[in-house]
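Sample intake sheet
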Amino acid sequence: MTKGATGLLGGSFNPAHGGHRSISLFAIDALALDEIWWLVSPGNPLKAKKGMAPLAARLASARAMARRAPIRPTAIEGEFGTRFTVDTLARLRRRYPKRRFIWLMGSDNLAQFHRWRDWRRIARENVIAVIARPGYDDDARAAPAMAWLRRFVRPASQSRNWTDWRPPALVFLRFRPDPRSATRLRQQNPQWHLAFRSTAARDPVTRRRIP
């Protein structure tokens, strides 16, 4: 294991839930990570703004869900002013040159990866781990991006050696299905974020307070 091995899991975390936590703990073990950073997005360009809770509430929910685990939620994208993953990853590498980052995504995101800005650049500059999501695996493996990425797939049995890989490199990780979703939680409680109104949201990575 390389010291500073850090997984990056991006998302809205609207709200963070047990599925995020269980997937992250699985990835920490499968990839021999020191920790995972949850990149709580100020706004996903591929998602509608309607129904999106304030950033401070989403970060607070992520901090609560990550408690007592090697997981650090961060709203650093807001500080960077970046909206696209390719730009965020470039800024992270410049700010933390001694860390080794691996990008984590669910198979549902791989299915639409070809819609991401400069997705080939993301793959050329970052090792990627794809975590199985129920109902999306077939679509992910047949995704337009896989026509290019397929030649760079590495065996899952070697996943703990990812710091030795030179990107492009992609590994598929099998994870038992987890039915929990933020969409379902919002349907059950649309006003979930009100529970975090009085919570001081301080970024665990940058130490900045989120207004």
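Comment: The chain has a mean pLDDT of 88. Residues 18-30 form the longest helix (13 residues).
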